[in-house]
Design goal:
The protein has 2 domains: 1-113 and 263-361, Isopropylmalate Dehydrogenase, CATH 3.40.718.10; 131-259, Isopropylmalate Dehydrogenase (3-Layer(aba) Sandwich). It is 42% helix and 20% strand. The protein has 14 helices and 12 strands. A 10-stranded mixed sheet has the order 2-1-3-12-11-4-5-10-8-9, with helices on both faces. Strands 6-7 form a two-stranded antiparallel sheet. Helix 9 links the parallel strand 8 (188-193) and strand 9. The longest helix is centred in the N-terminal third of the chain and has 18 residues, at 14-31. It starts with a strand and ends with a helix. The relative contact order is 0.16. It binds 1,4-dihydronicotinamide adenine dinucleotide and magnesium ion. Magnesium ion (MG) binds next to helix 11.
Length: 361
C-alpha cells in the first residue's frame, strides 16, 4: 500500500528544509521497501500571493486524505504586516490545518545530542541524558475560548479578556494520547496545570487521574503546578519522561525547554489527531522554527529540525520507529563529525549537512 505524504514547504527557509527532509525519506523508502508518494502544494504567504488564501480548499482536501503532512514554515514580514481580520484559520494555513484536522496533540521531544552539549544554555552535567517529550494540547484552551475581546464594561473601563475553557472530552483525548505515549516509553507521565487557582485546572487534574487509574495503571502519573514545572525543567530535566499540559502552558514550557537542546534549528515537532477507523493517524510534522527571512535563499538553513521531524513522521505517521532511529543516528554522526550550519557555530551549508546525513544513513 502506497502511503501519501503531502509536502507543504511554505515560506522562507521552509521549502529549503522540507526538501532536505523529503530526500532523506525517499532514500530510506527506496532501501526499506516503503512505498511513499509525495505531493507538493503551496501554503502561507506563497499561497496567499498566488490565490489570496493562506491555504486553498483543494490543499485542505489533500491534507485530509494524506497519511502525513511534512510542513516547513509559514509567514514573513511581507504577510505578517497585512492587516487582516476574520477568524484565525483564515489568516494562517497552519491554524486551519490544525483546526480542521483536529491535530490536538503537539509533541515536542527534548533530547539533546551529545555533540551539542556545549550549545545548551544549561550545564552539560545537567543536560547529558535528558530525554523527555512535552505534549501540548493544541486545539483548545485560552487561545480559542469564548468570550474574548476588548470592550468597555459596566465600570466604564476598557477590559481585554480571554476565556480558558476545556470540555471533559477535550481533556480525555489529550490524556489518552499522553498516557499511550508514556506507556511506550519509560511509563512516567507528569501532568502540568494550575489547579490551585483555576477551575479548568481542577477538571484537568481530575480527568487525568480518572483515566490513568482506569486505563493506564502501569503508567506512573504525577502532577505539578506550572510554576513549579518551569523551575523543575531547568533544575533537573532528567526527571521527566512525558509531560502533558494545556495550550498556553505548553507553548511557554516547550519554548523554554527547547533551549536545553541548544538550537532552535534542531527541534522537530509532531501534531497528531485521533486515529481514523482504518488505524491511520492524521499528523503534521514540522520543525519548531519559523521561516527565518534573515537567512532565506542563502543555503544556510539548518535542515536537521526538519529531518528530525521526518523521523517523527516515520514513527507516528508510518509506524516505522526502526527507520526513525536510523535517521536519528545519522544526524548524531553528522554532528559528531563537526559538520554543522552557522547557527551551531559551523561552516557548512544546508546542502553539505544533508549530504553528510545521507552519507551516514
Ligand atoms: P524564526 O524561527 O523564523 O527565526 C528566529 C531566528 O532563528 C532567526 O535568526 C533565524 O535565522 C534563526 N533560525 C530559525 N530556524 C533556523 C534554521 N533552521 N537554521 C538556522 N537558523 C535558523 O522566527 P521569527 O524570526 O520570529 O519568525 C519569522 C517568520 O516565521 C514570522 O513570519 C513568523 O510568524 C514565522 N513563524 C512560523 C512558524 C511556523 O510556521 N510554524 C513558527 C515560528 C515563526
Ligand atoms: Mg511558541
Amino acid at each position: 500500500m502506497t502511503r501519501q505524504i503531502l509536502v507543504l514547504g511554505g515560506d522562507g527557509i521552509g521549502p529549503e528544509v522540507t526538501a532536505a527532509a523529503e530526500r532523506v525519506l525517499r532514500i530510506l523508502a527506496g532501501r526499506h521497501k516503503l512505498a511513499l508518494a509525495f505531493e507538493h502544494a503551496l501554503v502561507g504567504g506563497a499561497c496567499y500571493d498566488a490565490t489570496g488564501l493562506f491555504i486553498t480548499d483543494a490543499t485542505m482536501a489533500k491534507a485530509k486524505a494524506a497519511d502525513a503532512i511534512l510542513f516547513g514554515a509559514e509567514g514573513g514580514p511581507k504577510w505578517d504586516s497585512l492587516e487582516l481580520t476574520g477568524p484565525p484559520e483564515t489568516r494562517s494555513g497552519l491554524t486551519r490545518l490544525r483546526r480542521e484536522l483536529e491535530l490536538y496533540a503537539n509533541l515536542r521531544p527534548i533530547r539533546p545530542f551529545e555533540a551539542l552539549l556545549a550549545h545548551s544554555t544549561l550545564k552539560p552535567e545537567i543536560v547529558r541524558g535528558v530525554d523527555f517529550m512535552i505534549v501540548r494540547e493544541l486545539c483548545g484552551g485560552i487561545y480559542f475560548g469564548e468570550p474574548r475581546g476588548i470592550e468597555r464594561k459596566g465600570d466604564g473601563l476598557l477590559h481585554g479578556f480571554d476565556t480558558q475553557d476545556y470540555s471533559e472530552p477535550e481533556i480525555e483525548r489529550i490524556a489518552h494520547a499522553s498516557f499511550a505515549l508514556a506507556r511506550s516509553r519509560r511509563r512516567k507521565l507528569c501532568s502540568v496545570d494550575k489547579a490551585n487557582v483555576m477551575e479548568s485546572g481542577i477538571l484537568w487534574r481530575r480527568t487525568l487521574t480518572r483515566i490513568g487509574e482506569r486505563d493506564y495503571p502501569e503508567v506512573e502519573l504525577s502532577h505539578l503546578y506550572v510554576d513549579n514545572a518551569a523551575m523543575q525543567i531547568v533544575r533537573n530535566p532528567r526527571q521527566f519522561d512525558v509531560i502533558v499540559t494545556d495550550n498556553l502552558f505548553g507553548d511557554i514550557l516547550s519554548d523554554g525547554a527547547a533551549m536545553i537542546t541548544g538550537s532552535l534549528g534542531m527541534l522537530p515537532s509532531a501534531s497528531l489527531g485521533t486515529p481514523r477507523p482504518d488505524g491511520r493517524r492524521p499528523g503534521l510534522y514540522e520543525p519548531v522554527h519559523g521561516s527565518a527571512p534573515d537567512i532565506a535563499g542563502q543555503g544556510l538553513a539548518n535542515p536537521l529540525g526538519a529531518i528530525m521531524s521526518a523521523a517523527l513522521l516515520l514513527t507516528h505517521g508510518l509506524g516505522r520507529p526502526d527507520l526513525a532511529q536510523i535517521v536519528e543516528r545519522a544526524v548524531a554522526r553528522t554532528l559528531e563529525a563537526g559538520i554543522a550550519t552557522p547557527d551551531l557555530g559551523g561552516k557548512a551549508g544546508t546542502g553539505e549537512v544533508l549530504a553528510a546525513v545521507i552519507e551516514a544513513l
